[in-house]
Amino acid sequence: MAAGATLYLRGGPSPALTWTHRVMKPCINHHALRIFRRGLVVRRLFGIGAAVWMLVPIVGLADVIVIANRTSTTVEWRVVGGSAPAGQFRLEAGDLATIPASGPLSIAVRDGRRNDAVVTHLDADCCYYFGQTRSGKVQLAKIGLGDGDASDSARGLGANQALGTIRVKLLVDDDEPARRPVWERRLLRRMSAASSILEKFCRLRLNVVSVGTWTTDNATQDFSRTLTEFERTVRTESADVAIGFTSQYDIPRSRMHLGGTRGPLHSHILIREWSQHIPEPQRVELLLHEIGHYLGAVHSPEPASIMRAVLISKRTRNARFPIQYDPVNTLIMYMVGEELRSRKVDRFSALTPATQRRLRQIYRELAKISPRDSSADSYLRMLQAGRAARDRGK
Ligand SMILES: [Zn+2]
Question: What does pTM read for this prediction?
Answer without folding.
Answer: 0.82
